Amino acid sequence: MGDGSRRISGLATLQDAGPEQIAFVANLSYLKSLNNTRAGAVLLHPEHASECPVDHLELDNPYLGYAHLSRLFDPFLARPTGGIHPTAVVAEDARLGVGVEIGPQAVVESGVELGDEVVIGPGCVVGVNSRIGARSRLHPNVTVCHGVTIGERAILHSNCVIGGDGFGFAHDGKRWHKIAQLGGVVLGDDVEVGSCSSIDRGALDDTIIGNDVKIDSQVQIAHNVHIGDHSALAGCVGIAGSTRVGSNCMLGGGVGLAGHLTICDGVQVTGMSLVTNSIHEPGVYSSGTGAMQNAQWRKNAVRFKQLDDIARRLAKLEKRNQEG
Amino acid sequence: MGDGSRRISGLATLQDAGPEQIAFVANLSYLKSLNNTRAGAVLLHPEHASECPVDHLELDNPYLGYAHLSRLFDPFLARPTGGIHPTAVVAEDARLGVGVEIGPQAVVESGVELGDEVVIGPGCVVGVNSRIGARSRLHPNVTVCHGVTIGERAILHSNCVIGGDGFGFAHDGKRWHKIAQLGGVVLGDDVEVGSCSSIDRGALDDTIIGNDVKIDSQVQIAHNVHIGDHSALAGCVGIAGSTRVGSNCMLGGGVGLAGHLTICDGVQVTGMSLVTNSIHEPGVYSSGTGAMQNAQWRKNAVRFKQLDDIARRLAKLEKRNQEG
Amino acid sequence: MGDGSRRISGLATLQDAGPEQIAFVANLSYLKSLNNTRAGAVLLHPEHASECPVDHLELDNPYLGYAHLSRLFDPFLARPTGGIHPTAVVAEDARLGVGVEIGPQAVVESGVELGDEVVIGPGCVVGVNSRIGARSRLHPNVTVCHGVTIGERAILHSNCVIGGDGFGFAHDGKRWHKIAQLGGVVLGDDVEVGSCSSIDRGALDDTIIGNDVKIDSQVQIAHNVHIGDHSALAGCVGIAGSTRVGSNCMLGGGVGLAGHLTICDGVQVTGMSLVTNSIHEPGVYSSGTGAMQNAQWRKNAVRFKQLDDIARRLAKLEKRNQEG
To answer: Domain residues for C216?
Structure first.
């Protein structure tokens, strides 16, 4: 609704947007800013159209509209490809698709295969025999170890590591003996991995990350983990070895999953929860307790150590009262 | 008090210091080592002067005195600047202040501005249009992405990442659609960031870290977080998107803050606490329970799942007793 | 037991192994796959020999046998050394043992000493005066800061950092003053450090990691921590400053140890536990509570805040019942 000839130069929040910017209403908590917005136009759901003082575009899912629009302003998309920088070290037998860019100081080792328009950022290392699908982008200083397979349109953020060794040792009663980690890592299409995250290679079989899996920063995924398609893992998540997470799961920040578990499709785990048993029903799961004032917390936390005793004493009292 | 001509070659603890070293008493738990110290001199509070068997310097805040003194022995301060290493790749249009050092294999991209005496360590990458203030130092293999602004005297430790994408996706009911992260990161003056930490760029607006904010290793700061001046974040802290932390806050190791919260000035959160609600009163906050022997813990932890039931049964019993 | 002339080309799980592969039974949960295995041979304990349909090798510790065997297939062991890559920057005064390999884009600074057959991966930086023992391997993009000592046969995975500054500041009532971190880091022999982990240098004395200590990915070890021989730390562990962990300890994923603690030999801490007091008895320790369905959790978690009140009310009721 409005002036179709208006020119737009960018995106901004409802509060900050000026007449040359588009804003959006994706969340009811922002509705209060709608009345006063100075935005050039607003993306919103039809039910809020009547409250909008400026031009607007009605969408069933305005947040999705914002996502599509945002990518028009992505500085990486507008950029011409940089080609192979003269300081990059690229093995003679590496196979490079059309329009590949390899940044300064990057290293592409023997047997590597890079699909069309792959971008390898400055300082990245891609190890022996790894394959990266078309239009994937590695931001600076990423390490992809040997024998890793990455699908198309992956985005790997800076200083993440794909394919470091899993944590496997046998103990002889006195000391540890390393188990060579002979599996690889397979990432599907449209996977994103955040800064400084690590996905370890499998012991014998591969560690497998499905299609459209989104992984935030500071995440640790141990050897032989499987993550199903479309799942999302927030920052600081840690998943121990051989655990299988289904499709369409969402793990909140700092969640920890113990090893050798099975988490079914459609499970959501809230922030900093510890999961030590498999989950067979979709739904929302939680553990822990929220912060309170330290003085109050001290009194309650000390009682946690008496909890079994409290329960037993209560049962005894109940019995006595029933008898009485 | 003592011999002003004594020559000192270094700093050490009260226990280890020899006649050519200075030690300090910053904490009552070290007092017991004072009587037997062989240190050349000791920094201490006037109230402990009488217990000191060697030369000493009385200070109101001896720990602060130690901090000042320690920096005289910092090996980086004594070093002559290395200039621009011939293997560094520096864009022609980058603007470099006086006395800038750029280490081997580093990359400084187009439009970057480096203040006087900035040091860019080996293997670092500074992305397009980023600005770094005077006397800041990047240790090896740091990544500063595009469009990041860093104040003066910052210290960024190895392999940390400033300005990776925030974790933003819209869901269409079936799959994720990336929201381009168009904001930047702004770090104030005197900020320190630990090894392997990540500070993500904002979605539309910037992620903002105030002046004199100290951030330890393995920390994750999500998009659009604000941290107020003089706050300190210990190792493994994770802060979810859009949360605002006040000034003079201290977050213990492993603390997690949920997204979209407001934490007022002067809040201290103890280690590994989970904060899911805003905090409007300064003070100390905690959650969780400390470790105990596993056998004892099992008995209590299982009761946690019965806690609501226990509370209801207790209330019923109380009522019955009052009636009886 | 079986055909000693059989040729084996690799290792696989009981389920996946074909006639040219060896499998193993290290864990009772895999026993059910033994009957149907198509493996060329199986490593197993004598007590399972009768259930094995194919050739087998009886071992007291078949998992240890698997570990030894796995290393025959390690792709790094078969590889010829690469020598010093022409793009590596190696200080003139660095002392290199026999058979040292330094990868492309790596930096070895002044005063560094590398033992025989050390491998420095692509993009690694080894800082001034650090020493690395014979046969140690640094995977790509590792940072070893200045003045670090690493023993023999160390394995450092990609993007980990050894010797970043510890987190030390003095407060003057208004702002922070950095304490120069003048200690180093000493790693014993046979230490492994996972991807993106960080071990900080000491304030005055060194941070010390014993022999045969195994450290997983995303781990943070703060300044002046000591870890005893043969201890193992799983992913995402965080240890605060000056804490001493004994020998033969095992810390589960995400465990947090507060600062200035002493943990005796032979302690095992289960995943995501918080340890705030020293531990003087060997054994297994735990904290926290496991995840449950969110609706159930909400009801119980809110009661945690009433726990002290519940305990007091219970005691009162008990007293009243005894009196009555």
So the answer is: 89-233
